[in-house]
């Protein structure tokens, strides 16, 4: 169990770093689209080869497509675009706000009665986000447009997470995730085509580290980490599995600082502490109150069965 948790913690946490390295030489929409289309297609082939049914109903496919587009195309795809102008650690901390947005959607859209303690956690989390973005706390290389794009990606990711248990998703978790990857990847590839990104790709000139980062995102970020995540959902308490939501950002910040020399100021540390503490409090409170749906995020895959960062 701890080996599987460590896999999810480190591999998903590392996807923000890998994205930052990949987009140095690989166009973001094209790279993200190829990543998810390839990961989802191979996963479907493996499941079919093992005798598992990968067929889904029209309603199931439509639901998987909507959620996959929100999580992977909207959420992860926009993060990939933004990381050309936003350090990986800051991007991870901003995406850590997803549980905060989900609580807001539950209280405003679904009209659910949210506990006062959870709302306090949301307020603390947004205070942490504000602290992260104050002058002097935000890294100089992080543009306002890039930060806004990551925050919008977090909102889309949260919307996909919110919808996932409310729409008729395919019952098989792995098959559902594979279809989400395929649909999200297809939308990203179409967007890349319209953006003219294929003409900007020059593999012969791409640095080896960018190509290796892409391979890492497909293999470690999508296949290995999600396999461990799916196993944990079946064999560990959900409250324990959910800890990835506040461990991943810390891993991303540490890796960005250690490998890419990303700046970690006192304001960043304080803001990160508030965001992570609020997410930890919300996850713990909500896990104790009720068992959440078995749909969370793939990071770098996203928040839902397919978390994909």
Please give a quick description of this structure:
The chain has 309 residues and is mostly helical. The chain contains twelve helices and no strands. The two termini are 22 Å apart.
Please give a structural write-up.
The chain has 309 residues and is mostly helical. The protein is built from 12 helices and no strands. The protein has helices at residues 2-22, 28-49, 58-82, 88-95, 98-108, 116-132, 144-163, 173-194, 208-235, 238-241, 244-260, 266-289. Helix 2 (28-49) crosses helix 9 (208-235), helix 3 (58-82) packs across helix 8 and helix 6 runs antiparallel to helix 12 (266-289).
Largest sheet: none
**Unreliable sequence segments:** 292-306
Distance between the termini: 22 Å
Overall mean pLDDT stands at 86
Described by its quaternary structure, the protein is single chain
Order of helices and strands: HHHHHHHHHHHH
* Helix/strand/pairing category: mainly alpha
- Helix share bin: over 70%
CA gyration radius, whole angstroms: 18 Å
Give the overall silhouette: globular
Task: Please tally the β strands and state the result.
Answer: 0
- So how many helices? 12
- In terms of DSSP E residues, the strand content is under 5%
